[in-house]
Design goal:
Order of helices and strands: EHEHEHEHHEHEHEHEHHHHHH
Shape: globular
Strand content: 5-15%
Structural class: alpha/beta
Number of helices: 14
Radius of gyration: 21 Å
Largest sheet: 8 strands, mixed
Distance between the termini: 57 Å
Length: 314
């Protein structure tokens, strides 16, 4: 029998499902719930217990984690009839893993405090591959003692966790991360389109972007997705659209200028409006392609042999 404290996990989508599997693999007793009940079956086969409602899932857990799409889903699953707040017991720790506005986090914290429950806002950095490998990076807001207590639950999920301060701090950092991602995708798309027009071989362009002093893992992963036309969702464009809307709201509330966001947000919304919301976030390139009247590809728009000049020199 496991000596680890029991946990519950709600929301078994691409990210949540991967995290739940890692908790099970670590030997953690786990109760799971999902809006589509059939998705719990594979987790039951791995040793989890399925709950009929969020309240039931939370009732026997010391740690209650949830990975939900947005604030509306949180409202239903946490505060609704048979929601987490109806079942969670005093002394537990509730952990929201979604990227939401910090006011959503503060509302959750207030509701849990009335029930003697600690709360952490802990949006995750990374996508499905990192979630599957237990290699996420997680900024966290809430009471320090709650963070210290919950470190054990994050170990199978994250490469590192980062305590940033009181409730809402993790959520704010989550939106800052999404702001940077939106800018990077915009810059990457523009760069690849310009390189395509100039006749450069895009695989070599992407390789160089991953080597230079401005390199980012996102450039490599998303760049390959763009030039290979592989838009299977890892982090969907509609989720990024939700994030940039929250960033714009937060920036307005804080009177913090984010002028670059306007362009990136416009392109994201254009791509979603064209029907690409369920595709990977890299599909934002399609909005730029529409403006340019062209479609980039892996081979480049002109013959180009990189030859020996691309090799590293001593």
């Amino acid at each position: 029998m496991s000596t680890k404290s029991p946990a519950a996990f709600l929301g078994l989508g691409r990210m949540g499902g991967a995290m739940a599997k890692n908790l099970l693999a670590s030997g953690r007793p786990l109760t799971v719930w999902n809006r589509t009940a059939g998705k719990t079956a594979p987790f039951v086969e791995l040793g989890a217990t399925a709950a009929a409602t969020p309240a039931q899932a939370a009732a026997s857990a010391d740690f209650v984690l949830y990975s939900l799409a947005d604030a509306e889903a949180i409202e239903a699953v946490v505060f609704g009839a048979d929601g987490v707040c109806q079942g969670i017991r005093a002394g537990s720790v509730a952990i929201d893993l979604a990227t939401v506005h910090p006011e959503t986090s503060r509302s959750e914290a207030r509701a849990y405090a009335e029930r003697g429950v600690d709360f952490l806002d802990a949006p995750v950095f990374g996508s499905r591959p990192e979630a599957e490998a237990g290699g996420l990076w997680i900024p966290i807001g809430g009471e320090r003692q709650a963070y210290d207590r919950a470190r054990e639950i994050f170990e199978p999920l994250a490469e590192s966790t980062h305590y940033l301060g009181p409730t809402g701090s993790g959520a704010t950092m989550g939106l800052i991360g999404s702001l940077v991602v939106a800018h990077q995708l915009q810059a990457l798309g523009e760069g690849l389109l310009l390189a395509w027009r100039a006749g450069l071989a895009l695989p070599e362009v992407v390789r160089l972007l991953g080597l230079a002093d401005f390199s980012s893992p996102l450039f490599t992963v998303m760049g390959e997705s763009m030039i290979r036309r592989d838009f299977r969702p890892v982090f969907s464009l509609e989720h990024l659209e939700k994030d940039v809307d929250q960033i714009a709201r937060l920036a307005d509330e804080l009177t913090a200028p984010v002028p670059g966001l306007a362009v990136a947000r416009e392109m994201i919304k254009a791509a979603v409006g064209a029907g690409h919301g369920f595709e990977n976030a890299s599909a934002v390139i399609k909005a730029l392609e529409s403006l340019a009247g062209t479609e980039i590809g892996e081979t480049g728009s002109a013959d180009f042999d990189p030859g020996e000049d691309t090799e590293a020199r001593p």
